[in-house]
C-alpha cells in the first residue's frame, strides 16, 4: 500500500507564514511563494529578514541564468513575498505556519506559544526541526493535533525530499495536509513516525559512522570507501565526502544525540570523528575532514 497516496488538502491553504529567515527559512519561503502561496517571511529583526530575501533573489537570479526559472515566475514569486519582524502580523492570517527557528527546544516552545495566541484555530502548524521530538515540541501547544514536522533539506529549492513527521497527537487530517502541501511545492514527501533521526538521518548518519570505523581499521582509504558506495551502490556521493560537506562537528552532535536516544552502540561516535573535530578539521568548511578540500 502506498501510504502517501492522498493528495488533496482537507483545509484550504492560501497564506503561509515562515518563521526564521536563515538557511532553511528563506528557502522554504522561496518554494512556497514559487508554488503560488502568499508567503510572509518573519525573523526577529528586519535586517535578517531582508538578508533572507536577498538570498531568495540570488537563488532566483541564478535559476533564470541557467534557464531553470522563467523570468515571469521570478517576478511573480517575489510579488507573493511579504517581509515582517512583527510576529502577530506574520501569523494572524496564515493558513499554515512553518517554523525554521534555531534548534533549541526552549526557544521553539516560547515561539509556538506566542504563535498559538495569534493564529487561526484551524491553521496547520509545522516545524522544520531536524532532530527535536515532535511530541516534545507539541507540549507547548493547546491544540497539538494540527501540529507536525515538515523536514525540508538544504538547499530547500533544490532538494526534493520532505519528511512529514507525525507525533502521537497529530491527527489524520494534519498528516495528509502535510503530505499534500509538500507535494504542491513539487517535493517528494515521505511519512515518518516521530522517532530520533526520523527516517533520513538515522540511516544516513549510520552509514557515515560505519565508514569512519572502516577507516580506523584500515579496511580501505576514505577515497576508496567513498568510491565503493558511489560506483558499487550508485550513491551520488560517498558517506565520508558527505560527512565533510555537512560538517564533522554537526555529524558528531547528531551521532551523540542518536546514541543517547536510540541506545544503540552503532551510533557511538568513533574516536577518529572526535579527534578530527578536536583538531578543528570539520570538513569542507575548514578545508579538511576525511578529505582535503580546495575551497573556492
Ligand atoms: N541547516 C540545515 O541544513 C537544516 C536542515 C534541515 C532542518 N534544519 C532545521 O531548521 C531549523 C532552522 O535551521 P537553520 O539552519 O535555518 O538555522 P539558521 O541559524 O540559519 O536560521 C535560524 C533563523 O531563526 C532566527 N531566529 C532566532 N530566534 C528566533 C525566534 N525567536 N523566532 C523566529 N526566528 C528566530 C534567526 O535570526 C535566524 O535567521 C532548525 O530547527 C534546524 O534543525 C536545518
Task: Describe it.
The protein has helices spanning 25-34, 46-65, 71-79, 87-91, 105-118, 134-138, 172-184, 200-216, 222-232, 239-246, 248-262, 271-278, and strands spanning 15-19, 38-42, 81-84, 96-99, 124-127, 147-152, 161-166, 188-193. It has 296 residues and is of the alpha/beta class. It folds into two domains: 15-193, NAD(P)-binding Rossmann-like Domain (Rossmann fold, 3-Layer(aba) Sandwich); 201-286, N-(1-d-carboxylethyl)-l-norvaline Dehydrogenase, domain 2 (Orthogonal Bundle), CATH 1.10.1040. An eight-stranded mixed beta sheet has the order 3-2-1-4-5-6-7-8. The longest helix is centred in the first third of the chain and has 20 residues, at 46-65. The radius of gyration is 20 Å and the shape is globular. The termini are far apart. Residues 19-25, 43-44, 48, 100-103, 107, 111, 128-130, 151-154 line the site of nicotinamide-adenine-dinucleotide.
Keywords:
Rossmann fold; N-(1-d-carboxylethyl)-l-norvaline Dehydrogenase, domain 2; 12 helices; alpha/beta; binds nicotinamide-adenine-dinucleotide; single chain; 296 residues
Instruction: List how many beta strands DSSP finds.
Output: 8
Distance between the termini: 47 Å
- Biggest sheet features: 8 strands, mixed
For the record, what CATH class of the largest domain applies?
Answer: Alpha Beta
Low-confidence stretches: 1-6
- Write down the overall geometry: globular
Radius of gyration: 20 Å
Could you name the CATH topology of the largest domain? Rossmann fold
Order of helices and strands, N to C? EHEHHEHEHEHEEHEHHHHH
Largest beta sheet: strand ordering:
3-2-1-4-5-6-7-8
Beta-strand portion reads: 5-15%
Amino acid at each position: 500500500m502506498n501510504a502517501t497516496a492522498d493528495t488533496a488538502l482537507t483545509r484550504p491553504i492560501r497564506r503561509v507564514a515562515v518563521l526564521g529567515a536563515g538557511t532553511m527559512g528563506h528557502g522554504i519561503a522561496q518554494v512556497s511563494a514559487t508554488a503560488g502561496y502568499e508567503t510572509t517571511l518573519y525573523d526577529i529583526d528586519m535586517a535578517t529578514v531582508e538578508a533572507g530575501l536577498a538570498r531568495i533573489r540570488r537563488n532566483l537570479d541564478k535559476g533564470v541564468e541557467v534557464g531553470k526559472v522563467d523570468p515571469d515566475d521570478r517576478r511573480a514569486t517575489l510579488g507573493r513575498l511579504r517581509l515582517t519582524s512583527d510576529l502577530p502580523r506574520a501569523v494572524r492570517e496564515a493558513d499554515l505556519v512553518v517554523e525554521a527557528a534555531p534548534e533549541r527546544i526552549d526557544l521553539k516552545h516560547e515561539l509556538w506559544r506566542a504563535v498559538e495566541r495569534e493564529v487561526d484555530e484551524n491553521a496547520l502548524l509545522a516545524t522544520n526541526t531536524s532532530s527535536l521530538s515532535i511530541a516534545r515540541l507539541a507540549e507547548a501547544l493547546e491544540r497539538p493535533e494540527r501540529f507536525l514536522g515538515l523536514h525540508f533539506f538544504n538547499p530547500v529549492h533544490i532538494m526534493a525530499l520532505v519528511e512529514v513527521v507525525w507525533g502521537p497527537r497529530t491527527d489524520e487530517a494534519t498528516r495528509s495536509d502535510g503530505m499534500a502541501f509538500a507535494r504542491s511545492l513539487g517535493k517528494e514527501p515521505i511519512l515518518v513516525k516521530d522517532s530520533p533521526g526520523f527516517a533520513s538521518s538515522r540511516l544516513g548518519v549510520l552509514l557515515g559512522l560505519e565508514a569512519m570505523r572502516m577507516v580506523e581499521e584500515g579496511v580501505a582509504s576514505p577515497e576508496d570507501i567513498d568510491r565503493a558506495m558511489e560506483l558499487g551502490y550508485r550513491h551520488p556521493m560517498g558517506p565520508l565526502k558527505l560527512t565533510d560537506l555537512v560538517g564533522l562537528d554537526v555529524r558528531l552532535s547528531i551521532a551523540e544525540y542518536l546514541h543517547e536516544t536510540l541506545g544503540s552502540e552503532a551510533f557511538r561516535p568513533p574516536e577518529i570523528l572526535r579527534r578530527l573535530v578536536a583538531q578543528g578539521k570539520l570538513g569542507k568548511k575548514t578545508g579538511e575532514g576525511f578529505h582535503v578540500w580546495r575551497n573556492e
